[in-house]
Amino acid sequence: xxxxxxxxxxxxxxxxxxxxxxxxxxxxxxxxxxxxxxxxxxxxxxxxxxxxxxxxxxxxxxxxxxxxxxxxxxxxxxxxxxxxxxxxxxxxxxxxxxxxxxxxxxxxxxxxxxxxxxxxxxxxxxxxxxxxxxxxxxxxxxxxxxxxxxxxxxxxxxxxxxxxxxxxxxxxxxxxxxxxxxxxxxxxxxxxxxxxxxxxxxxxxxxxxxxxxxxxxxxxxxxxxxxxxxxxxxxxxxxxxxxxxxxxxxxxxxxxxxxxxxxxxxxxxxxxxxxxxxxxxxxxxxxxxxxxxxxxxxxxxxxxxxxxxxxxxxxxxxxxxxxxxxxxxxxxxxxxxxxxxxxxxxxxxxxxxxxxxxxxxxxxxxxxxxxxxxxxxxxxxxxxxxxxxxxxxxxxxxxxxxxxxxxxxxxxxxxxxxxxxxxxxxxxxxxxxxxxxxxxxxxxxxxxxxxxxxxxxxxxxxxxxxxxxxxxxxxxxxxxxxxxxxxxxxxxxxxxxxxxxxxxxxxxxxxxxxxxxxxxxxxxxxxxxxxxxxxxxxxxxxxxxxxxxxxxxxxxxxxxxxxxxxxxxxxxxxxxxxxxxxxxxxxxxxxxxxxxxxxxxxxxxxxxxxxxxxxxxxxxxxxxxxxxxxxxxxxxxxxxxxxxxxxxxxxxxxxxxxxxxxxxxxxxxxxxxxxxxxxxxxxxxxxxxxxxxxxxxxxxxxxxxxxxxxxxxxxxxxxxxxx
Length: 723
Prior knowledge:
By secondary structure, this protein is of the alpha/beta class. It has helices spanning 3-7, 13-23, 25-40, 42-48, 66-91, 105-122, 125-134, 138-157, 184-215, 217-242, 251-259, 285-293, 311-331, 348-366, 378-382, 387-401, 414-428, 493-499, 535-546, 550-556, 591-618, 660-668, 677-695; strands at residues 168-171, 174-179, 302-307, 340-345, 452-459, 465-469, 479-480, 510-513, 520-526, 559-569, 627-633. The model is unreliable at 1-6, 638-645, 709-716 and 718-723 (pLDDT under 50).
């Protein structure tokens, strides 16, 4: 016993607990973060109730789902990592031990034993409670509940086993049982945990989106949390302190900041095939040539379509609307797609528009005459899980890249979404397998039978609109991504769509370099930062026509704009003939802290609404009826449900994943049954859209015959797109 040990004052209860929490920094932080992510984010809750959901009608059975089994295994791994790492941190007798004896030895003994147990239980119990409250079937919560009881029994009763005390001892200067070094069994346990972490890392790198979806977003998050707990506790804290060095627990944060100046790996158009030097067709001359090519249909409406942002919610709703409009036109032997001149999207709206145009391109490639329903169906592609590939790249390869002194381009988490879109579409439509990987700039010769595409993004440096399009047209005070001075010739359709959907932090801001020296011109983020509807570019096109030649002004008078909005809209959100909405607005808590960020976020929707109102003004006001507002209606909050239904939103979340229930609600909302005021307004707008389709000429030479099955006559309700 040393003199220092005998004379050192004992710690107070508060100081002892603070020292214990400091040693368990990573288990504490990851436990709190995991519960905040999985239970605090509606996007994460959406994934938790999707285990075992059927492809068609039926009841979800999570116990029959391999992804649910992996989730339970990941939950066990996370809980075990939190408990075990905290246990060895509190049990180790470090050379410079700041966790001195406490004035209350009983308190110290309870804290040392129960803090690790509590951390382990907090990794399981809150999720179990969520399943109990939010899901009607015990099949969701029976496994995590069994895991919680098993875990508690293991950590409590294992102390009665002789092996539990191997290597642990007390000293006169330290009355608590502790160990001097890890036993062979403990080392084997730690190595096995590292093996699991590296195994999942390798699976996500080698298996890409296939492995990510098989594991599932919730399990990927849990294993990542367990891995960070293990690495932070053992490598950054245990090993340095065992050698008499201070803890390196905060080193990763400082290191990531310093290396961020050298390892930037988020670049636009980093790969892909160069588009060549051909000039893109210019607006409005391209519109005049396109209209002339319509021949006898030159008097049909000219559709411009804007699709707002909102990740998969926006993409799927856009797909539902456009697929239904196309199929309804075919049922009526009328034209729709051939009368769509251009589409302009933001974020998920861009993906939905791209899937629709890709389906039209696939039909054209196969020589389909358009006598049957649109095939391949965009909604089948848009219903896929795009969150898991993004999460896998973000939490594993791209996280490692943050600590490398050089850029790892292959680790860029942007690839998680872009590669998933490209490969999924290749499987979905072999006739146009490479559509998403083709260069955006490689425009078809004028006139095109496919709609021109505009994918909008925003600069970080000055917050301006950046237009990415196969059409040469740039609104005033906006940038053209293909202006000739930027290294964007290799920009693919998938890359352009993702640039419009870079809503941080899941998708990173991406650097655009100058073509000559490779220096960074600016960074781009989600187009919704500028405005979230996609109508800004369309308004500029309309203004250009209205101020042009008499022939161009005549074309402007035939324009009909279809606005597709996925943000759940109450009765007051419709611009034309809104209905009063007595329900109060949702406001954030902690107003002093949250008001600035909340207001900035809300302005993206407000700017979109203002620009949509400008579109209506440009086209003659509400009375002209030339702007169709197809807004997804807000759910009826008063509908009955089970006692925990409030934990899950009735409206689909803004996420890259939608479960079957959300997809079904979105796909069937076009059936107006009079229950919701917003549905009444949507039904009115839907009838107006079909009215414009009825005004178009009949499709020449493509008799419908019996190509539509009886169920297809209900496509206005979207039932065929729900699964």
